[in-house]
Request: fold
Amino acid sequence: MPARKTPAAAEETAEQTLEVQEEKKRRRTAKKSAEVGAETAPKVPTRKRSPAKKQAAAAPVEPVVSSELPAPASPELPQPRRSVAFIGSECYPFVKTGGLADVMYALPRALAKLNCDVKVLLPRYRCIAQPWQEKMIYRGSFMMDLCADGRAFYVGIMEYVWDGVVYDFIDNEDFFSYGQPYTNLVDDIPRFCYFGKAALAALNYMDWIPDVIHCHDWQAALVPVYLRTLFAATPLSNAKTVLTIHNLRFQGIYNIPTIQYWTNLPDYVFNKDALTQNWVDANMLKGGLTYCDRITTVSGTYAGEIQTPFFGEELDAHLRYHAGKLRGIVNGIDPQLWNSRTDKFLRAPYGTEDAAAQKQVNKLALQAQLGLEQNADKMVLGLISRLTDQKGLDLVNAIVPALVDGNTQIVVLGTGEARYEDSFRSFEHAYRGTVCSYIAYDEALAHRIYAGADALLVPSLFEPCGLTQLIAMRYGTVPIVRETGGLKDTVQPFNQYANEGNGFTFDRYDAGLLLDAVNRAKTLYFTERPRWDEMVRRDMEKDVSWENSARHYRSLYLELKP
Ligand code: ADP
Ligand code: GLC
Reply:
């Protein structure tokens, strides 16, 4: 435990000194048992003299072992310091397919500012761009038993320390040398059976026993199961686990023999209260939900919704059973990454004071880039999304002809299912100069749309949290959303009488209601521009940062490790 500056008050000083001593004692005990545990636990690689440590000694600057990172010295930092290992399958800017990557980037940073010592464990995919690969430093390697027939696999640890957060990439060519993080279940199931165990074994190997292991989605859901079974006799088992559901739609389901083979987990976890589902399949997420100490999901409303059959994806009963340990904590966005004043992708960066004028400049630049008629008076509706049925695209498809009224333009940025890519392409063809469907993943263009559009459509069928509406608000782009999940929790509907609210909302999943919401937005935009501009200002001033939510996660960690 790093030394901390104690605050001036004598009482607090004494309290903290005690805490520091206790923390030191805890670490000493943990370290001692690490040495014992590693030898006795059959499934965990024997701890050998780490080549990483030799390497670290030879390396002039990096890596810094995170437990040795100096604690930030500000007396305002919340006490006590807590250590957390994040385990997940994607993290911006290394690899991103959706909002999970944004959370894995921003939440650890926000926690680091709240006196948390955070390590993020990720697969070292080959598709991680070369500049990042070059920053990683070899931290060690070992062979790990994995399969039921005793097959062992290499686990390499490549480390990168950045802004107070330590990133440890699990390296294995057999599993992570594909061009993208996810391919198909046949490959993904073994890949993430391996990853969950390798992440724990890597923590053991590095002798880093966190207070809490925070796992994300099905890809890391076996971690609590491994921890309470194969790792039960290791020091790591002192850690508590949190499993966050970012999207219940994806659960990692496959036949029992395959998962039994790839994990070598004991037979008793394959029962209907844990991994087994419908007697024939094993469900990795379900197992994690059973074995973790706390379940969180990314908004309060979604936490309630997933306990109902419609949103529960066949796990509603299981979630109701575990409701006592389920919490909803809404996501935020990183205020530095999403800052319209400093955004290097924008033609005209802006703040609240000059948003009205500068957004027009950005709109004209966007129209020019996308081949739309350049006219700042047109209302531009944006849509930035994975193109899947989750996102309410059927509703959008049903109303595009009604939206294109001569005063409105539509910009779609997304990739995904062929049926949606094709329908949006055909709209672009039918309404050239008015509709642009940019079928790609393009970070820079996303920033330009958030800045240049007037409103953003998020009519999701379900939405655990949703980040695009948060980013839109921060960029003064009014969200038009369906009242579900995090959309309901973060967008307050416009009230024309009180002149309050942040966006336009509708409740039932119905194209007519979406059209009505867009028409209400259009009416305000075209007929009462000053009131529209006030809403833009309210949106830009709304606190959508991680600060608040990170405090909730911190409290949860403290609840588990007082
Ligand atoms: P989900 O995780 O369900 O896809 P979120 O709203 O939580 O939805 O997060 C989506 C993230 O991905 C946002 O940061 C959004 O800007 C980004 N995004 C989605 N599609 C694209 C795209 N085609 N190009 C660039 N960024 C995209
Ligand atoms: C998932 C959800 C999305 C959420 C994101 C980050 O991908 O679909 O609603 O914002 O995870 O938690």
The first strand starts at residue 82 and ends at 87. DSSP finds 21 helices and 18 strands in the chain. Confidence is low (pLDDT under 50) at residues 1-73.
